[in-house]
């Protein structure tokens, strides 16, 4: 493996936004969120598709993307990050692209899983 002087952590202020866990059903998702609440004091926030433990863990109510779940990486410049990763051979899953009201990309998954986890980029811009 070669070390690249340019890396996305430095280029795009990239950090782990959250980890997604695939639960079998809503009851299991609620239990997982409760366990994280006990472990770290994180409030459980229920949405139609998932239960969030604050913003750190997203437990999908019915198996979400990825064999084991997903990892969301926050970037500060989505277009530049997309270009950077695609130039390195990571294809984007266009069907997963989620847009903001102004048409900018808010979230997009890569086609390939890593270690059984789907990977997506996200931004708040």
What does this protein structure show overall?
By secondary structure, the chain is α+β, with helices and mostly antiparallel strands. The chain has two domains: about 80 residues, no CATH class; about 35 residues, no CATH class. It has three helices and eight strands. The protein has an eight-stranded mixed sheet, covered by helices on one side.
Q: Work out the count of structural domains.
A: 2
The assigned structural class equals alpha+beta
Please, what is the oligomeric state? Answer: single chain
What is the tally of beta strands? 8
Question: Major sheet: size, sense and barrel closure?
Answer: 8 strands, mixed
Give the termini distance in whole angstroms: 33 Å
Extract low-pLDDT stretches: none
The total count of helices amounts to: 3
* Mean of pLDDT: 93
Strand content: 35-45%
What order do the helices and strands follow? HEHEEEEHEEE
Mind telling me the C-alpha Rg?
15 Å
Roughly what percent helix?
A: 10-25%
Strand order, largest beta sheet: 2-3-4-1-5-8-7-6
Shape: globular
């Amino acid at each position: 493996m070669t070390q690249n002087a340019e890396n996305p952590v430095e280029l795009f202020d990239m950090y782990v936004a959250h980890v997604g866990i695939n639960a079998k059903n809503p009851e299991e998702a609620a239990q997982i969120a409760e366990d994280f609440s006990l472990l770290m004091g994180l409030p459980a926030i229920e949405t139609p598709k998932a239960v969030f433990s604050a913003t750190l863990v997203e437990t999908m109510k019915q198996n979400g993307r990825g064999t084991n779940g997903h990892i969301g990486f926050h970037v500060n410049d989505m277009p530049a990050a997309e270009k950077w990763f695609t130039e390195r051979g990571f294809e984007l899953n266009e069907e997963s692209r989620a847009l903001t009201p102004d048409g900018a990309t808010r979230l997009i998954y890569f086609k390939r899983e890593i270690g059984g986890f789907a990977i997506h980029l996200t931004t708040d811009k």
